[in-house]
Amino acid sequence: MVMLENYWYIACSSRKLKNRPLALDIAGKRLVFFRDASGHPAALDDSCPHRNAPLSAGKVSHGKLTCPYHGWRFKGDGVLDEVPYVAGEPPACRTPSYACVEQDGYVWVCPGGQAPEKAPLSFPHLNLPGWTSFGMETLFQGNVEACLENFLDCPHATHVHRYWFRTPTAKPVKAVIRMLDDGAVTEYFEEPREKSLVWSLLSPGRTVSMQHTDRYIVPATSRVDYEFGDGRAYSITSSCTPVDDTHTRVFTVISFRRGWLGPFIRLFFHPLSRLIINQDVRMLAQVQENIRRRGGADFMPLEQDVLFRPIHEWRKALREAGPLPEAGRQWQVELKL
Ligand code: FES
Ligand SMILES: [Fe+2]
User: Which CATH number does 9-109 carry?
Assistant: First the structure.
Protein backbone atom coordinates (compact mmCIF):
# COMPACT_ATOMS: atom_id res chain seq x y z
CA MET A 1 0.00 0.00 0.00
CA VAL A 2 1.23 3.52 -0.82
CA MET A 3 1.96 5.33 2.44
CA LEU A 4 1.11 9.01 2.68
CA GLU A 5 4.72 10.06 3.16
CA ASN A 6 4.74 13.80 2.66
CA TYR A 7 3.05 14.66 5.96
CA TRP A 8 4.22 15.23 9.50
CA TYR A 9 4.06 12.21 11.78
CA ILE A 10 5.11 11.89 15.39
CA ALA A 11 8.31 9.89 15.72
CA CYS A 12 8.59 9.90 19.51
CA SER A 13 8.14 12.07 22.55
CA SER A 14 10.82 14.75 22.96
CA ARG A 15 11.83 13.12 26.24
CA LYS A 16 12.77 9.91 24.47
CA LEU A 17 15.34 11.55 22.19
CA LYS A 18 18.32 12.37 24.36
CA ASN A 19 22.01 12.04 23.58
CA ARG A 20 21.88 8.62 21.97
CA PRO A 21 20.74 7.66 18.48
CA LEU A 22 17.25 6.20 18.31
CA ALA A 23 16.06 3.82 15.57
CA LEU A 24 12.39 4.02 14.60
CA ASP A 25 10.38 2.45 11.78
CA ILE A 26 8.21 5.04 10.07
CA ALA A 27 6.21 4.56 6.86
CA GLY A 28 8.16 1.41 6.03
CA LYS A 29 11.59 3.03 6.51
CA ARG A 30 14.07 2.42 9.31
CA LEU A 31 15.25 5.88 10.38
CA VAL A 32 17.80 6.96 12.95
CA PHE A 33 17.04 10.03 15.05
CA PHE A 34 19.53 12.11 17.00
CA ARG A 35 19.99 15.67 18.19
CA ASP A 36 22.29 17.91 16.16
CA ALA A 37 24.76 20.44 17.57
CA SER A 38 21.96 22.94 18.32
CA GLY A 39 19.77 20.30 19.98
CA HIS A 40 17.32 20.08 17.06
CA PRO A 41 16.13 16.60 16.12
CA ALA A 42 17.56 15.10 12.95
CA ALA A 43 16.59 11.95 11.05
CA LEU A 44 18.67 9.95 8.56
CA ASP A 45 18.33 6.57 6.88
CA ASP A 46 19.53 4.08 9.46
CA SER A 47 22.05 2.55 7.09
CA CYS A 48 25.56 3.83 6.59
CA PRO A 49 26.26 4.57 2.91
CA HIS A 50 29.74 3.06 3.35
CA ARG A 51 28.77 -0.56 4.06
CA ASN A 52 25.24 -0.56 5.47
CA ALA A 53 25.98 -0.64 9.18
CA PRO A 54 23.08 0.62 11.31
CA LEU A 55 23.96 4.17 12.28
CA SER A 56 21.64 3.78 15.28
CA ALA A 57 24.25 1.45 16.80
CA GLY A 58 26.77 4.29 16.70
CA LYS A 59 27.36 7.28 18.93
CA VAL A 60 26.42 10.93 18.97
CA SER A 61 29.09 13.42 19.90
CA HIS A 62 28.97 17.19 19.48
CA GLY A 63 25.75 16.81 17.50
CA LYS A 64 27.22 14.43 14.91
CA LEU A 65 26.48 10.76 14.43
CA THR A 66 29.38 8.31 14.16
CA CYS A 67 28.93 4.95 12.44
CA PRO A 68 29.87 2.00 14.69
CA TYR A 69 31.73 0.13 11.90
CA HIS A 70 34.50 2.39 10.51
CA GLY A 71 33.67 5.64 12.22
CA TRP A 72 32.29 7.72 9.35
CA ARG A 73 30.71 10.77 10.93
CA PHE A 74 27.53 12.50 9.70
CA LYS A 75 25.89 15.84 10.40
CA GLY A 76 22.17 16.28 11.00
CA ASP A 77 21.57 17.11 7.33
CA GLY A 78 23.14 13.78 6.32
CA VAL A 79 26.38 15.30 5.01
CA LEU A 80 29.49 13.19 5.65
CA ASP A 81 31.70 15.28 7.93
CA GLU A 82 34.69 13.08 8.58
CA VAL A 83 36.24 9.74 7.70
CA PRO A 84 38.73 9.07 10.51
CA TYR A 85 41.15 7.04 8.37
CA VAL A 86 41.28 9.54 5.48
CA ALA A 87 43.56 12.54 5.75
CA GLY A 88 41.99 15.87 4.81
CA GLU A 89 38.51 16.44 3.42
CA PRO A 90 36.12 13.49 3.39
CA PRO A 91 34.65 12.40 0.04
CA ALA A 92 31.45 14.18 -1.01
CA CYS A 93 28.61 12.11 0.41
CA ARG A 94 25.18 12.87 1.73
CA THR A 95 23.00 10.16 3.17
CA PRO A 96 19.20 10.70 2.91
CA SER A 97 17.88 12.96 5.65
CA TYR A 98 14.29 13.76 6.65
CA ALA A 99 12.75 17.02 7.86
CA CYS A 100 12.08 17.11 11.60
CA VAL A 101 10.40 19.58 13.94
CA GLU A 102 9.70 19.57 17.63
CA GLN A 103 6.25 20.64 18.80
CA ASP A 104 3.96 19.96 21.77
CA GLY A 105 6.62 17.77 23.40
CA TYR A 106 6.97 15.48 20.39
CA VAL A 107 9.52 14.98 17.62
CA TRP A 108 7.75 15.03 14.25
CA VAL A 109 9.24 13.78 11.01
CA CYS A 110 8.23 13.85 7.37
CA PRO A 111 9.25 10.44 5.98
CA GLY A 112 8.83 11.63 2.37
CA GLY A 113 11.00 14.01 0.39
CA GLN A 114 8.61 16.98 0.50
CA ALA A 115 7.95 18.32 3.99
CA PRO A 116 4.64 20.17 4.35
CA GLU A 117 4.89 23.95 4.57
CA LYS A 118 2.37 24.00 7.41
CA ALA A 119 3.46 23.08 10.93
CA PRO A 120 2.15 19.79 12.37
CA LEU A 121 -1.34 19.77 13.81
CA SER A 122 -1.32 21.11 17.37
CA PHE A 123 -2.90 19.11 20.16
CA PRO A 124 -5.82 21.20 21.44
CA HIS A 125 -6.08 22.37 25.07
CA LEU A 126 -2.44 21.65 26.02
CA ASN A 127 -1.41 23.98 28.86
CA LEU A 128 -4.72 25.88 28.83
CA PRO A 129 -5.85 27.12 32.26
CA GLY A 130 -8.33 24.74 33.90
CA TRP A 131 -7.32 21.85 31.62
CA THR A 132 -5.29 18.77 32.53
CA SER A 133 -3.63 16.60 29.88
CA PHE A 134 -1.76 13.35 29.64
CA GLY A 135 -0.29 11.47 26.72
CA MET A 136 -0.10 7.80 25.82
CA GLU A 137 1.83 5.90 23.17
CA THR A 138 0.42 2.63 21.82
CA LEU A 139 1.57 0.25 19.11
CA PHE A 140 -1.40 -1.24 17.23
CA GLN A 141 -1.38 -4.16 14.83
CA GLY A 142 -3.34 -2.73 11.94
CA ASN A 143 -2.87 0.04 9.43
CA VAL A 144 -3.68 3.72 9.93
CA GLU A 145 -7.19 3.33 8.47
CA ALA A 146 -8.02 0.49 10.87
CA CYS A 147 -6.92 2.62 13.82
CA LEU A 148 -8.79 5.75 12.72
CA GLU A 149 -11.98 3.76 12.08
CA ASN A 150 -11.69 2.26 15.55
CA PHE A 151 -11.12 5.57 17.33
CA LEU A 152 -14.08 7.19 15.55
CA ASP A 153 -16.52 4.31 15.86
CA CYS A 154 -19.25 4.30 18.52
CA PRO A 155 -20.93 0.90 17.97
CA HIS A 156 -17.82 -1.15 18.87
CA ALA A 157 -17.79 0.39 22.34
CA THR A 158 -20.92 -1.52 23.40
CA HIS A 159 -19.03 -4.77 22.68
CA VAL A 160 -15.30 -4.18 23.13
CA HIS A 161 -15.73 -1.76 26.06
CA ARG A 162 -19.02 -3.07 27.45
CA TYR A 163 -19.63 -1.79 31.01
CA TRP A 164 -16.31 0.08 30.89
CA PHE A 165 -17.29 2.77 28.42
CA ARG A 166 -20.66 1.87 26.94
CA THR A 167 -23.50 -0.43 27.85
CA PRO A 168 -26.00 -1.17 25.09
CA THR A 169 -29.34 0.55 25.63
CA ALA A 170 -30.74 0.13 22.08
CA LYS A 171 -31.78 3.77 22.22
CA PRO A 172 -32.10 5.60 18.91
CA VAL A 173 -29.33 8.11 18.30
CA LYS A 174 -29.11 10.64 15.50
CA ALA A 175 -25.74 11.29 13.86
CA VAL A 176 -25.09 14.17 11.49
CA ILE A 177 -21.99 13.75 9.33
CA ARG A 178 -20.39 16.67 7.52
CA MET A 179 -17.41 16.74 5.18
CA LEU A 180 -14.87 19.41 6.08
CA ASP A 181 -12.03 20.89 4.07
CA ASP A 182 -9.58 18.90 6.19
CA GLY A 183 -11.57 15.74 6.96
CA ALA A 184 -15.04 15.04 8.30
CA VAL A 185 -17.02 15.40 11.52
CA THR A 186 -19.94 13.58 13.12
CA GLU A 187 -22.17 15.12 15.74
CA TYR A 188 -24.33 12.81 17.86
CA PHE A 189 -27.71 13.69 19.34
CA GLU A 190 -29.69 11.91 22.09
CA GLU A 191 -26.74 9.71 22.94
CA PRO A 192 -27.23 7.39 25.93
CA ARG A 193 -24.75 7.82 28.77
CA GLU A 194 -25.49 5.47 31.58
CA LYS A 195 -24.50 2.18 33.17
CA SER A 196 -20.80 2.29 32.42
CA LEU A 197 -17.78 2.98 34.58
CA VAL A 198 -16.42 5.90 32.55
CA TRP A 199 -19.75 7.70 32.29
CA SER A 200 -20.54 7.33 35.97
CA LEU A 201 -17.09 8.56 37.01
CA LEU A 202 -16.63 11.42 34.59
CA SER A 203 -19.94 12.77 33.32
CA PRO A 204 -22.53 14.84 35.16
CA GLY A 205 -26.15 13.65 35.43
CA ARG A 206 -28.45 13.39 32.45
CA THR A 207 -30.06 16.73 33.21
CA VAL A 208 -26.85 18.45 32.07
CA SER A 209 -26.61 18.98 28.31
CA MET A 210 -23.88 17.24 26.32
CA GLN A 211 -22.34 17.82 22.92
CA HIS A 212 -20.36 14.98 21.35
CA THR A 213 -18.39 15.27 18.11
CA ASP A 214 -16.04 12.79 16.44
CA ARG A 215 -13.70 14.24 13.89
CA TYR A 216 -11.31 12.87 11.30
CA ILE A 217 -8.49 15.24 10.37
CA VAL A 218 -6.31 14.44 7.36
CA PRO A 219 -4.21 12.51 6.98
CA ALA A 220 -4.03 10.48 10.19
CA THR A 221 -5.61 12.16 13.22
CA SER A 222 -8.82 11.50 15.13
CA ARG A 223 -10.37 13.81 17.66
CA VAL A 224 -13.25 13.04 20.00
CA ASP A 225 -14.83 15.82 22.07
CA TYR A 226 -17.43 15.75 24.81
CA GLU A 227 -18.59 19.09 26.14
CA PHE A 228 -21.07 19.32 29.01
CA GLY A 229 -23.38 22.15 30.01
CA ASP A 230 -21.74 22.40 33.44
CA GLY A 231 -18.35 23.29 31.92
CA ARG A 232 -16.79 19.83 31.99
CA ALA A 233 -15.10 18.87 28.76
CA TYR A 234 -13.09 15.88 27.53
CA SER A 235 -11.02 15.82 24.38
CA ILE A 236 -9.13 12.82 23.00
CA THR A 237 -6.79 13.38 20.07
CA SER A 238 -4.97 10.46 18.48
CA SER A 239 -2.18 11.06 16.02
CA CYS A 240 -1.38 7.93 13.99
CA THR A 241 2.12 7.24 12.70
CA PRO A 242 2.35 4.48 10.08
CA VAL A 243 5.08 2.03 11.05
CA ASP A 244 4.55 -0.29 8.09
CA ASP A 245 1.56 -1.78 6.23
CA THR A 246 0.31 -3.61 9.31
CA HIS A 247 1.47 -1.60 12.30
CA THR A 248 0.62 1.89 13.54
CA ARG A 249 2.08 3.80 16.45
CA VAL A 250 -0.57 5.99 18.03
CA PHE A 251 0.15 9.02 20.16
CA THR A 252 -2.95 9.92 22.14
CA VAL A 253 -3.37 13.10 24.14
CA ILE A 254 -6.32 13.18 26.51
CA SER A 255 -7.26 16.61 27.85
CA PHE A 256 -10.07 17.46 30.19
CA ARG A 257 -11.43 20.60 31.83
CA ARG A 258 -12.06 19.92 35.49
CA GLY A 259 -10.16 22.82 37.11
CA TRP A 260 -8.32 22.02 40.35
CA LEU A 261 -9.78 18.50 40.39
CA GLY A 262 -7.88 17.68 37.19
CA PRO A 263 -4.68 16.22 38.70
CA PHE A 264 -6.74 13.99 41.04
CA ILE A 265 -8.99 12.80 38.21
CA ARG A 266 -5.93 12.03 36.16
CA LEU A 267 -4.79 9.52 38.82
CA PHE A 268 -7.55 7.11 37.81
CA PHE A 269 -8.40 8.44 34.33
CA HIS A 270 -4.93 7.66 32.98
CA PRO A 271 -4.84 3.94 33.97
CA LEU A 272 -8.50 3.58 32.98
CA SER A 273 -7.73 4.99 29.53
CA ARG A 274 -4.81 2.58 29.17
CA LEU A 275 -7.07 -0.33 30.02
CA ILE A 276 -9.70 0.74 27.48
CA ILE A 277 -7.12 1.38 24.74
CA ASN A 278 -5.65 -2.08 25.37
CA GLN A 279 -9.09 -3.58 24.70
CA ASP A 280 -8.89 -1.97 21.24
CA VAL A 281 -5.30 -3.16 20.79
CA ARG A 282 -6.42 -6.77 21.35
CA MET A 283 -9.41 -6.42 19.01
CA LEU A 284 -7.38 -4.88 16.18
CA ALA A 285 -4.67 -7.54 16.60
CA GLN A 286 -7.33 -10.23 16.04
CA VAL A 287 -8.64 -8.36 13.00
CA GLN A 288 -5.14 -8.00 11.55
CA GLU A 289 -4.38 -11.67 12.14
CA ASN A 290 -7.55 -12.62 10.26
CA ILE A 291 -6.68 -10.31 7.36
CA ARG A 292 -3.24 -11.92 7.21
CA ARG A 293 -4.65 -15.45 7.30
CA ARG A 294 -7.21 -14.70 4.60
CA GLY A 295 -4.67 -12.87 2.46
CA GLY A 296 -6.68 -9.65 2.31
CA ALA A 297 -9.32 -7.48 3.92
CA ASP A 298 -13.05 -7.45 3.18
CA PHE A 299 -15.24 -4.54 4.20
CA MET A 300 -18.97 -4.09 4.31
CA PRO A 301 -19.37 -0.64 5.77
CA LEU A 302 -22.87 0.45 6.72
CA GLU A 303 -24.00 4.05 6.77
CA GLN A 304 -24.09 3.64 10.58
CA ASP A 305 -20.30 3.13 10.44
CA VAL A 306 -20.45 6.85 10.08
CA LEU A 307 -16.87 7.97 9.42
CA PHE A 308 -15.65 4.81 7.69
CA ARG A 309 -16.42 6.06 4.18
CA PRO A 310 -15.15 9.63 4.71
CA ILE A 311 -11.84 8.31 6.07
CA HIS A 312 -11.38 6.00 3.08
CA GLU A 313 -12.59 8.61 0.59
CA TRP A 314 -10.14 11.20 1.90
CA ARG A 315 -7.13 8.93 2.15
CA LYS A 316 -7.74 7.45 -1.31
CA ALA A 317 -7.92 10.97 -2.78
CA LEU A 318 -4.66 11.92 -1.03
CA ARG A 319 -2.91 8.71 -2.11
CA GLU A 320 -3.98 9.04 -5.72
CA ALA A 321 -3.66 12.86 -5.80
CA GLY A 322 -7.25 12.86 -7.10
CA PRO A 323 -9.97 15.47 -6.51
CA LEU A 324 -10.50 16.04 -2.79
CA PRO A 325 -13.89 15.32 -1.20
CA GLU A 326 -16.16 18.33 -1.33
CA ALA A 327 -16.45 20.24 1.95
CA GLY A 328 -19.95 21.03 3.22
CA ARG A 329 -21.64 17.79 2.10
CA GLN A 330 -23.83 16.67 5.00
CA TRP A 331 -26.09 13.74 5.75
CA GLN A 332 -27.93 12.20 8.66
CA VAL A 333 -27.99 8.64 9.98
CA GLU A 334 -30.08 6.90 12.64
CA LEU A 335 -28.37 4.28 14.78
CA LYS A 336 -28.93 2.48 18.07
CA LEU A 337 -26.41 2.62 20.89
S1 FES B 1 29.75 0.95 7.43
FE2 FES B 1 29.65 2.87 8.33
S3 FES B 1 31.65 3.56 8.40
FE4 FES B 1 31.78 1.69 7.37
FE1 LIG C 1 -12.41 1.54 21.39
Answer: 2.102.10.10
